[in-house]
Write a structure and sequence with these properties.
Length: 425
């Protein structure tokens, strides 16, 4: 880990060329690696030697970007995966098997809810849900001897709830399980989960980290501090039969056991690596992450303030606004800002929302958030289209709700576009 400040790490961490080597990260577009003798390859397979064998498991381009993200989060190691969803799947399955359970906040990404409630259930893993209105006693009552981890999202997509990391880390640790958080929306620029007690961080790098809507990717980062030798995690302390009996904690040390197991065992078996080309593109995004996140946040705050003053706007949800109920939690965990994403609803329900969105000229309607270009989505008309207005209200998604992902264009152009579209709504 370098001692530089985070802005410098965005630009400089990871790939460090030696004398005469290429200045920028080379793309090692190769599935395989050449060795001079059979014994050496055998040692790689026994994990007695480190080195690349096959790009399904590791690749030099990918490894350099993993180093950069580990450094940005302040973790001991990182693992890039083919998508945010595969990062979450591997992060959970690395320490959870059929017959066991995990505890998760309810306000997490919709794709994560599908994975947890439907697919993990089919694999025999039970998910127990927690929300902020529950007392500590009610939350603690959900833990039992088969509970493996606690899961939350630092800034929930799309509800924008701010996760009380310190509080839930304490509860998880009291029950001997790690806290895993999804830090996609704030990114390590705005939120430092390991400093508040989180043990593992996951990312959809598809969002701000790439930042240009070009490559799907995910990442798992190991904070290195959780004690896997507390007796609950034999998969990390006892021999792995699929690796000639390697014991991950004794072999890699407690601080690197989790991330190495995820790579050597699960990425190998499930085959979900990030490709070298995608890692190269992601690295370009990371080089300007600090600049973009700062501009996304300052633009979004101005847009949220503008929206909250408009007569045609019913409500605005943005934790950066002082009037937002999550403002004080946001100040604690995300002092530099939250993200560029705002939810708001306009008077007139679904029809008015559709007229507003169809009138936008600069902002585009896309099923994506968190890239450089301003975009909008009406959950009631798209991702939650099958629900009636009553069901939408029960789910906390008014028919007129608009999710606005504020880009890094000139903020006055964004506001002018919203102004003219509101007139047409
Ligand atoms: C998009 C998203 C994911 C899923 O990531 P993909 O890269 O689309 O697989 C997970 N968590 C959050 C918070 C997201 O916004």
């Amino acid at each position: 880990m370098s001692e530089y400040r985070i802005e410098t790490k965005c630009v400089q961490s990871g790939y460090k060329p030696e004398n005469g080597e290429p200045r920028t990260l080379p793309i090692y577009q190769s599935t395989t690696y050449k060795y001079d003798n059979t014994d050496e390859v055998g040692e790689l397979f026994d994990l007695k030697k480190s080195g690349h064998m096959y790009t399904r498991i590791s690749n030099p381009t990918v490894a350099e970007v993993e180093k950069k993200i580990a450094d940005l989060e302040g973790g001991t190691g990182a693992l890039l995966t083919s998508s945010g969803m595969s990062a979450i799947l591997v992060a959970v399955l690395n320490i959870t098997s059929a017959g066991q359970n995990i505890i998760s906040m309810t306000s997490v990404y919709g794709g994560t809810v599908n994975l947890f409630s439907v697919t993990l259930k089919r694999l025999g893993i039970e998910v127990r849900y927690v929300n902020d209105s529950m007392s500590d006693e009610e939350v603690e009552a959900l833990f039992d001897e088969n509970t493996r981890l606690f899961y939350g999202e630092t800034l929930a997509n799309p509800g924008l709830d701010v996760f009380d990391i310190e509080k839930y880390a304490e509860i998880a640790h009291r029950h001997g399980v790690p806290l895993i958080v999804d830090n996609t929306f704030p990114t390590p620029i705005n939120c430092r989960p390991f400093e508040w007690g989180a043990d593992i961080v996951v990312h959809s790098t598809t969002k701000y980290m790439d930042g240009h809507a070009t490559v799907i990717g995910g990442c798992i980062v190991d904070g290195g501090k959780f004690d896997w030798t507390n007796g609950k995690y034999p998969e990390l302390t006892e021999p792995d039969e699929s690796y000639h009996g390697v014991k991950y904690v004794s072999h890699f040390g407690n601080g690197l056991a989790y991330i190495n197991k995820a790579q050597c065992q699960l990425i190998r078996d499930f085959g979900m690596p990030l490709t070298p080309m995608s890692a190269f593109i992601l690295n370009l995004g990371l080089e300007s992450l600090h600049l973009r996140v700062e501009r996304h946040c300052s633009n979004a705050l101005k847009v949220a303030q503008f929206l909250s003053e408009q007569e045609k706007v019913e409500s605005v949800s943005y934790p950066g606004l002082e009037s937002d109920p999550r403002h004080s939690l946001a100040e604690k965990y995300m002092p530099k800002g939250t993200s560029g994403v705002i939810s708001f609803s306009i008077k007139g329900g679904r029809d008015a929302a559709v007229r507003f969105m169809d009138s936008l000229k600069l902002a585009a309607i896309v099923v994506h958030v968190a890239d450089a270009r301003t975009s909008v989505l009406n959950p009631a008309g798209t991702t939650h289209r099958q629900l009636t207005d009553e069901q939408l209200a029960a789910a906390g998604i008014p028919a007129g709700l608009i999710r606005l992902s504020v880009g890094i264009e000139n903020v006055d152009d964004i506001i002018d576009d919203i102004k003219q579209a509101l007139q047409n709504a």
